[in-house]
Amino acid sequence: MKRYLKIFFSRFFLVAMTIILTFVVNALIILAGAYIAEETLAAYFPAASPYVHFIFGAVQWIIVLITVFSVVNRDMLPETKIPWILCVVVLNVFGVLIYVVFSYNRPSKKSRRRYGYLNERSRPFAKRALSQETLAEEMGERAADSEALFRENPNAVAYTDTKTEYFPTGEEFFKRLLGDLQNAKEYIFLEYFILARGTMWYTILDLLKEKVKEGVEVRVIYDDIGCMGKIHAGYYKELRKAGISCVKFNPFVPIVTNLHNNRDHRKIAVIDGKIGYTGGINLADEYINETHPFGNWKDTAVRLEGEGVKGLILMFLRLYNLRQKEPEDFAPYIPQTYEKFGGEGIVQPYGDGPRPLYGRHLAEDVYIGVLSRAKKYVWITTPYLIIDYRMRAAMLSACARGVDVRIVTPHIPDKKIPFALTRSNYMALIKGGAKIYEYTPGFIHAKSFLSDDEVGIVGTINLDYRSLLHHFEDAVFMYKTRANEALKEDFLHTFEVSALQTEEDAKRSVVWRGICELAKIFAPMF
Prior knowledge:
By secondary structure, this protein is an alpha/beta fold. The protein has helices at 2-8, 11-44, 49-73, 78-102, 109-122, 132-138, 141-148, 170-182, 199-213, 235-241, 310-321, 362-373, 389-400, 416-424, 426-431, 465-470, 482-496, 503-507, 510-522; strands spanning 163-167, 187-192, 217-223, 245-249, 267-271, 275-279, 296-298, 301-305, 346-352, 377-381, 404-410, 435-439, 442-444, 448-451, 455-459, 473-479, 498-500.
């Protein structure tokens, strides 16, 4: 009972109920207004009464048809159009209202202009040090082909001589991060989807406060929805009082708007511009197994040291300055020289986000590029396997070429509906030749790709519609790096403790499969 009362009085529940109530009230006002107008016209013009109902009904369907025509001609994924058309046709004007409010994920015009300006401001620091010809000559054709995927993104630059280190658990990442934070001399940047009360965050916070006293500049970005229920609404004010420059990304307010779709799902730490981290690990206790809400929590991260950290610095600064009145000069945060590290391949930090801030769906294009270029194997970990037709086709095409495609998903879910949607994709992939494993010790939150002992990707990007379409995300593309060797060892160990799924496992009940297939139609809407 205490648990339900806590949920009932939580900020998330109260805000969600306020939004639902506001939406319902607005819908009722529209419907009531139309009804009153219809009845008034019929009363004042009784002779026209038989036609009034017809006219109002016709107007409603004209609005519906115009909306359907708009959906059909809109630049969006084809599978996203189908559920919106169904919503509009079935729910009539009410469905039109839902579509207008919830279907768009475009940031405001002000944000788009500001982000474009910040992109230009960061361009001088993101000069391409290596041409495709140089990459092809020094690293191989695959490196050049892969780097070409990022050509439209001016800030996804390929770097060499950058040291990489892979962490197969949150515990190892946390220990290493604390050591680097303690050694910070100039500045610390932290950008995380979740900060949560507990051992992990409070340990870091105590250290950050000490660093502030030493004269180190500390900045923190956290996502408001990601932290809802983890910290209170005004937490950023507490951090500012402690001398930490803090931005609460896209604050959640109880109004019906599509702007809440764009969340900052990134996990970035930068120390003095020379060391950077990213991966799936948030700053909350379950990520280091201090708590066990879903069994053992499996997550990963990568550490960069050297010039490749520039990519993470620029991603942080652009988003931090997106909400500032006056954009700052980036130059003081970019080191003039970097130590060179031999024996490494190339690293390419990259970000993705909602269109039109980003020209295309870069994160998905990179994943599909890895699948299409693979010759021997592609191994994947993802907490949510809610894929579109492009991704599924790329996986099945790789399998058809004889590529060993393996996907690791959780055995214990953190969310039941995404878990059901994840499992609903098993059958088609298994029949197509993919091997799917469920991580039996608990929940796997890692988002990683590894292919042919050459290409590795570690980052924040899930295989679901929210990550690939709506959120601000980041990852590091790594070619022939030392981190890839450790990533492969971790994959092999993970396979050993995971359960290989069969067609029999994927069948389950007919009713369950039917519900999941129906739910998949509407998955792109959420």
